[in-house]
Amino acid sequence: MNARTRMALAMRHQLPDRVPVMCQLALGHYFLNTDIPPHRIWFTSEGFAEALVLLQRRYRFDGVLINLPGRPEHLLDEVASIEETRDAERLVWANGEVTVIPRDDNPYHLLADGTKPPRADFATLDPHDLGNLSELTSYIWGVYHVPRLSGVTARGPLSEVPDYFLRTIDLVKVAVGDEVSVHGEVFSPFTHFMELFGYENALINLLTDRDRAHALLDQLTQAAVVWAVAQAQRGVDAVLISSAFAGGPFINRAMYREFVLPYERRVTEAIRAAGTIVYTHTCGSIGDRLDLMEETGTQGIDTLDPPPLGNGDLAAAKRQIGERLFIKGNMNAVEMLTYTTPEQVIAHAS
Predict the structure, then answer these.
(1) Fewest CB within 10 A of the end CB: N or C in the chain?
(2) What is the reported pTM?
């Protein structure tokens, strides 16, 4: 049984030959553990695809999660200079803006004057006129991880997927063939909302004007649907909805029901209508909302963090949702970094 079949069976509640293993590695892990320059991993489809496949083979993962969109072929031609230091790469773009890529962490982007790109203003943003979103660097960087989107003609939230977005998927699928499960990723509407305003302000905005918040979430949902369906139609084996801010202590159960559930349901319905498996990543404490996550229509839960990272109880979760949803995770990845022997890792996994 190959890895792709193993994953397919597990995600469909059928019995594989063993438990599948895959991991969403931090981007800093790719930077530190490959010979590919970090800027090529982050800003080229070819570099990221190579890193994904290299570490999938090194660690013998059964699946690959492609968690960056593909990049325009000549994106790095817009970079005027690259300065390397011991701790980071510093890319200066032709317009003077700067991207700093730490050796062990996600990159961040600065304007030409060295300041962070401003977030949207909740009080003045019209939910029915979001044309400026496509020029809002902080939002584009937060959701798509580039300073600006090229090849998109319509303004506002993403309504068309440029073909280069799918380039990394194509490259990985060619490299692994039918042997390995290939997964795409889309940010949830709630994550779009968080990136639009910044995390603290976004949470305050939910309570400041609930009607405006709902109107914005409604508009942002379509951007998530468009990108998710494009990946499903390109032939990924599953689409992960990344909803990292929907657990505790960010929001409580009631807020999840109001601001997350109805919008994620629209995304899951679109992915399932395209004939593709969908599962949801929410880190932190989700033990009190597994039933609500199931109501979104998702088919699997990732990561079910155990204490102290979250409050996931694997046995209880299996009793509650295990007959209907698959569970991926429930390992304390932070604690595992302190282990020094194979026996410790095996005991933790067992």
Answers:
(1) C
(2) 0.97
